[in-house]
Amino acid sequence: MRIENVRTILVDRYLFIEITTENGLVGLGEGGAWGFHEATIGAVEKFKNYLIGKDPLRIEHHWQYMYRWTHFRGSAVMAAISAIDIALWDIAGKHFKAPVHALLGGKVREKARCYYHVFGETKEELFEGVRNAKEMGFTAVGHLTPFLDTPREEPLYQSHVEMITDAVETVAQYREIAGREVDLCIEIHRRLKPYEAVQLGRAIEKFTPLFIEDPATPDNLDEMAYIADKISIPLATGERMTSIWEFQMLLARNAVQLVRPDVCIVGGISGARKVAALAEASHVGVVPHNPLSGVSTAACLQIAATAPNFVLQEFPGDVWNVTDARPDTGSFLIGAALHDGEGFLTISDEPGIGVALKPDASLNFPYRPREVLTRLHKDGSVVDQ
Ligand SMILES: [Mg+2]
User: Fold this and answer.
1) Given this model, what pLDDT does residue 323 score?
2) Which of 4, 141, 215, 313 is the S-S candidate for 112 at Cβ 3.0 to 4.6 Å?
3) How many angstroms is it from 166 CA to the middle of ligand 1?
4) How far is the CA of 315 from the centre of ligand 1 (A)?
5) CA pair distance 81, 44, nearest whole angstrom
6) CATH: 3.40.630.10, 1.10.10.10, 3.40.50.150, 3.20.20.120. Which one for 102-357?
7) What is the 228 CA–ligand 1 centroid distance (Å)?
8) Are strands 344-346 and 111-117 parallel, antiparallel or unpaired?
9) Could you tell me the distance, in angstroms and rounded to a whole number, from the CA of residue 185 to the centre of ligand 1?
10) Other CB atoms closer than 10 Å to residue 28's CB: what's the count?
11) How many other CB atoms are found less than 10 A from the CB of residue 39?
């Protein structure tokens, strides 16, 4: 079996790649450097020349070849390698007529507990989102910021005391609505400095969140270790990391209790399962990062199905930020994972990753590129996004 073609497909906010074989198999993957799809496409085009004519079943060999042939890595290159890796696993599953999880050692669980995204530009919208998630049967809610997802055009300013006090009151309200049936995954979106994160983290410990995510910018792993050491809430981070070596350095510092590998930038299914194994050796849990489409969800579920230390799957569902409305998953995908109404996602037993792109997807949902736009503080300085 030989690879015949590699092509990129842009649909709405998403970048997919399709790899076809001479005997008619089609593998589907997704790239996760969502701010730089154009750069990822350039990297895929580069790798295409290498891949055509190769045996698609030598997944690890191709991964190593693409990763090691030259000096340069980073998010766009790793998004390309990730998308290719996912597509090659999809082909392998179809070739062996087995779901990918069967090729990875088989399922260690039947379904994957998930958390639902909550968005809102006002506190009322956020509280309503928690209420809705609970009513829909979700047992965890995430993407749940104690700050507001205000439009990026609005300058950011609160006094320190107002910022911390407001945030604590908001988390208290989340807990009151969620009760004990629903876990809270608190997402800081890198909004705080390490010293602010410690103060807020300690103040919300009494509400028993399942985790606090990216309390500060993840550039400095020692700072993350400093925060993790000073608060009792499990710390989750890793969504920007593009290699197993970065995760190893995070784990070596005891800077994380729940790793958040993104299967679409960390090297695909091959990269994410290695991160899960590294974490397993430290009794650290895995919460695969997944803000993308149902293709990413399907790839994440191969990790959820096979990693003993899997904890929770991020599930954006079909509801997205009100300022960034996206099409329903089912409108451009066939076979996307569904919520079972009790807080779990079904794990497909179809060959490969179990999803396919509808042929008219890019026609029906043309690409909407992201413009370079970020939030400023009231004084004009730039907020990290
Ligand atoms: Mg996050």
Assistant:
1) 56
2) 313
3) 21
4) 12
5) 8
6) 3.20.20.120
7) 16
8) antiparallel
9) 10
10) 24
11) 17
Interval 316-337 mean pLDDT: 76
Q: Angle 73-41-93 (CA atoms, 0-180°, nearest 5)?
A: 85
Nearest to 94, CA basis, from 314, 272, 304, 335 = 335
Average pLDDT, integer, range 145-162: 84
Average pLDDT over residues 148-162: 83
Confidence label for 120 from pLDDT (cuts 50, 70 and 90): confident
Residues 282 and 252: beta-carbon distance below 8 Å: no
Lowest-pLDDT range, 37-51, 81-95, 155-169, 346-360?
155-169
19-23, 47-51, 216-220, 237-241: least confidently modelled range: 216-220
Q: CATH classification of 3-97, choosing from 3.40.140.10, 3.30.390.10, 3.40.50.1360, 3.40.50.300?
A: 3.30.390.10
Measured in angstroms, how far is the CA atom of residue 143 from the centroid of ligand 1?
7
Strand partners, 192: 216
Going from the Cα of 110 to the center of ligand 1, the distance in angstroms, rounded, reads 26
| Domain boundaries, given as residue ranges, for the chain | 3-97, 102-357
Residue with tokens 């430290």: 282
Which residues are the active-site residues?
Answer: 189, 289
Structure tokens at 342: 């009790």
Model confidence over 224-241: pLDDT tens digits? 999 999 999 999 999 999
Same fold flag, 3-97 and 102-357:
no
| 97 Cα–ligand 1 center, Å | 35
